[in-house]
Structure formats: structure tokens, C-alpha cells
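Render DUF6927 domain-containing protein in 3D.
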Amino acid sequence: MGWLFYTDRRVQTYADEKAEITRLCTFHGDTRKTELVKACKVGSTWYAAARVTSIDGSPVEDTTYVTDADGSISFGAVFLTRYDDGCWGYKDMEESAGPNESRAPLGLFELLSDLKDPDSYAQDWRQRCRDWASIPDYEEGDKIRLAAPVTLTDGSTCQIVTATHYRRGRQKRRCYRIEETGWLVRLSKASLAGSELLSSAKGAASPVLAEYLAGRE
């Protein structure tokens, strides 16, 4: 499906976008109806859970999803969005199509039906979302080892860094101090996948917490 753009400029705010996602996930046919259960925005991408029920109350039969106890099925959907000359556009994909964007919050999966095929595109997409969510969110002062050296723009590499920040105006921005040089570098969340916490800033500040953390290693 290609990009669709609206000519009216009312889709300008978060609330406007969510209203459009709700509309796109709402459908009433002769035998079934679909409605939005939950929608979350990450960057410019919307992730949604939609529920399908039968008009006559009978269980919904589907080749991809296991029917839930209430007779419905719920599936995940991804909406890529962008603005062009003030017009809002979207591209929608159901999870079984294997969307590339895979940063859906884990809470969304609690609302989705089980999958019949453990090797489906939908299962791969859900796992990629779980992998993304499992990347640690380090705190100020945490010392970490990256899973693999990261090559910087000057050609040098770094692997052991400490989480810190710098200020731009009134905003604090996350960055990392390189162990070998002391230089500051910005790292993408993807580069933190598989990283290891070497020492915790909280543990260093609190002997009691340090003992507790040591006992969990």
C-alpha cells in the first residue's frame, strides 16, 4: 500500500493523529467488526492493537490467530506516518506482513491474540519488538561494555563507556564518556543491544545497594 495524504490540515496534533488511527482501525461489515483497543506512538510510527468480533457473537475463526476465550481475535498493526507540505500521510501494515518498524511497547502484546504459526512473520515481528524493549536504559554514571566495538566518525572505536549527559540549552541529552580517551559520544539505542553493565552508579553511591547488587551477580 502506498502513502496516502490528506488535503485538509486538521491532522496537526497528537490527538488528531490518534483520532485518525482510531478511524483507520474501525470497520463494520456484514458479519464482523473491528475496533481499536490501544494505540501507542513511538517517534513518527503508531503501533496499534485492534480487536475483531463477530456481529452475531459467534467465535471468530482465523488462519493466523488463535481465537480468544471471548470469541474475538486481536492483532497488531503498524502505521508509518509523515507530513508533506502540511498534509498528514500514513502507510499501514498488519503484523503478519512483517513490518520493519519493530519498537512497539511490550504492553501492547498483552492485548494481542496468540499466533497459530510459531514461525510466522508476525512471530518474528513480536520477537524483534521484545528484543528492542530488552535493551537496557542505563542511568547516569553506569559503566558499560558494548557487545561489540563501535566505530566513530573519525575511524576510532570504543567499547567501554560511562553513561553521562551534556546540556543543550535547557535540555539534558544522553551521551557516553569513552573509557580510553574521556571523549563524549552519542550512541544509538541499537548500539546498546547485548551490552553489559560493569558497575552501577547507584551501587557505588550506596554500600547497602552495592551489597544487594553484588549478591545478584
